[in-house]
Write a structure and sequence with these properties.
This protein is of the alpha/beta class and about 450 residues long. It folds into 2 domains: about 180 residues, Glutaconate Coenzyme A-transferase; about 240 residues, Acetyl-CoA hydrolase/transferase C-terminal domain (Glutaconate Coenzyme A-transferase), CATH 3.40.1080.20. Helices cover about 30% and strands about 20% of the residues. It is built from 16 helices and 26 strands. A 7-stranded parallel β-sheet has the order 4-3-2-1-5-7-9, with helices on both faces. Strands 11-10-16-21-25-26 form a 6-stranded mixed β-sheet, sandwiched between helices. It has a 3-stranded mixed β-sheet with strand order 18-17-24, with helices on one face. α4 links the parallel β2 and β3. α6 runs parallel beside α7, α8 crosses α9 and α15 packs antiparallel against α16. It is globular. The model has no long low-confidence stretch (mean pLDDT about 90).
């Protein structure tokens, strides 16, 4: 970490801590009209600061609040306190459900980015006035461990004029790289005490189970795993834990409960090329079981997303397996994981980082998974394999990058295939009710060979 100041002298630590420590209600007085703030990422959104800031809604104007995937049950009190949007607006680098609700109300906007570039984006373009970082309590050396989400902190801290730590007694202490802040770099300290939020385990749907069953035969002993969010990764983790496979390692954007289960089942040995013996992650998000597992666990290593999601670091691990969800795929292999037309659903996240990284890996594979159809409230059914992505759709993974696409009807590999071969492969895993229409569309679009037959 590039530090603005030297370490605080040991003899001065108690007095410096006392001078900088104050209630959140006092710290938020540093926020001025037009300020740009960052208040945390995922499970580390700073709850006490945000609640105190909401109390100033009537006094402030045009304050921009940056966050990443805010989902806390009682978060966005700022938005609730400011229905007009005069005081606060949200800039999110990964749209959660709460961000989408705020977006529809005119309070929130998305910041497009590749996740591995997050620290650099904030360092070079954030122009932050205040950074609020959730940490654990200060240790005897004057250091605050940033706990479960070191993700973008190094760039956020370097860019900010004022650095605030919300020192939460219930934050796990996580071993890692560049994952602490020294008292010298801190301007204000808020002492807090509340549990990290639970991310409920998603119950897999029938399609999730079938998708996982198509992926399972393609996973080998000794693979290095990255699992995303959702029913398919959760169920696949259960399948791996119960299988005869083993000798796995972990290099993942998100540490989730599935990895705890795999570890406890004796499936993880950590034999890999980068950080051997360590389960590497940039954010941890799950149940209290997960947070207890990573607390003071030397087998776990947290690091900034610029390292964990660096495609060359990912690719240095042999047999890298990346599994993520997506929303739609067109017959050219373009993948949309972010929107339903012009309606924003999610962020880019690290999906492209891991698709590219896994392909660089010796024996690596990446899987992008979607149900073959979507059913709307009125009973209308729509194929998720499409002739072309609808207007407004975001191409999260370009066709040149995509490796495997998986639905409940199979897994197809697209690398090295021509446009007509891709169309043929993708039609083969579409829902049978839509295959004839997809073939006709492919013929009209000039990507269907006359002699093509479904695989």
């Amino acid at each position: 970490m590039n530090r603005k100041k030297a370490f605080v002298k040991a003899a001065d630590i108690p007095s410096e801590y006392a001078r900088k420590c104050m209630p959140a209600s006092e710290v938020v007085k540093a926020v001025k009209n037009g300020h740009r703030l960052h208040i945390g990422c995922d499970a580390s959104v700073c709850k006490d600061f945000e609640a105190a800031l909401a109390g100033r809604a009537a006094e402030l104007e045009n304050v921009t609040i940056f966050s990443t995937n805010t989902f806390l049950p009682d978060s966005y009190k700022t938005v609730q306190a400011d229905p007009s949007g005069k005081a606060f607006r949200i800039h999110s680098t990964h749209m959660s459900k709460k961000d989408r609700v705020a977006n529809k109300a005119g309070h929130a906007w998305f910041v497009p980015n590749l996740f591995h570039q997050g620290p650099k984006n904030f360092r070079d373009h954030g122009n932050l006035n205040i950074a609020v970082i959730m940490t654990g309590p200060m240790d005897r050396f004057g250091n605050f461990n940033v706990g479960v989400t070191p993700t973008e902190d190094i760039g956020i801290i370097e860019n900010a004029d004022i650095v605030v730590v919300e020192a939460n007694k219930q934050m796990p202490n996580c071993f890692g790289l560049e994952n602490y802040i020294n008292l010298a770099d801190v301007d204000y300290i808020i002492e807090s005490d509340y549990p990290l939020p639970d991310l409920p385990i998603v119950t897999p749907k029938e399609s999730d189970i079938k998708i996982a069953e198509h992926i399972m035969p393609l996973i080998e002993d000794g693979s290095c795993l990255q699992l995303g969010i959702g029913g398919t990764p959760n169920y696949l983790g259960e399948m791996i834990a119960k299988s005869d496979l083993g000798d796995f390692s972990v290099h993942t954007e998100m540490m989730c409960d599935s990895f705890v289960d795999l570890y406890e089942a004796g499936k993880i040995t950590g034999k890999k090329n980068t950080n051997p013996g360590k389960m590497v992650y940039t954010l941890a998000l799950g149940t209290q079981k997960l947070y207890r597992f990573i607390d003071n666990n030397p087998a776990c290593l947290s690091a900034p997303v610029s390292y964990v999601n660096n495609m060359n670091v990912i690719g240095a691990n042999d047999k890298m397996v990346s599994i993520n969800g997506c929303l739609q795929v067109d017959i050219y292999g373009q993948v949309n994981s972010e929107s339903a037309g012009f309606t924003h659903i999610s962020g880019t996240g690290g999906q492209l980082d891991y698709v590219e990284g896994a392909y660089l890996s010796k024996g690596g594979k990446s899987f992008l998974c979607t149900s073959s159809t979507k059913t709307f409230k009125d009973g209308t059914v729509e194929s998720q394999i499409l002739p072309a992505l609808p207007p407004g759709s975001i191409v999260t993974c370009p066709r040149a990058a995509v490796d495997y696409i998986v639905t409940e009807y199979g897994a197809v590999q697209l690398k090295g295939k021509s446009t007509w071969e891709r169309a043929e492969a993708l039609v083969s895993i579409a829902h049978p009710d839509f295959r004839d229409d997809l073939i006709k569309a492919a013929e009209r679009q000039g990507v269907w060979k006359n002699s093509s037959k479904l695989l």
